[in-house]
Amino acid sequence: MSEEREILTWERFGTASRELAQMVADDDFEPDMVLSIARGGLLIGGAMGYALSVKNTYTMNVEFYTGVDERLEVPRILPPAPDFVDLHNAKILIVDDVADTGHTLKSVEDFCEGKVGEVRTAVIYEKSHSVVKCDYVWKRTDLWINFPWSDQPPVAKRTWSVADA
Question: What's residue 165's pLDDT?
């Protein structure tokens, strides 16, 4: 893996989230719900919810990455999973920080399939080898990305923590 990295600062995150939301608005897509993929999508999901005036935000926990460029064989949706009662006609915007392999996004899209009216995806970064081509992308890169929320080691270590992510 190359040592060169894409660096997202907090300031650039503010710009990225605003510009990404503008892409959605310019496309006249009005989501009824913003569905954030935790953990990386939590902050972008909140920013998108505010920028798009969507109060119905939800989080899905999906475990896939175990370290820098290390992952499980397949993504695992962790409980609690959303219950899409009365949302069969709803427009859902799935958001995450990056579509790297795209398998996490694909698993969430598959989970939503047939339960809601329409699903679109928005990410800050998309990599060329992603199996999902997102509807809204702030920037494309094939570099490993340092996000401001995960570029420092945890202050509390746990036995299951990702080391040196």
Answer: 45
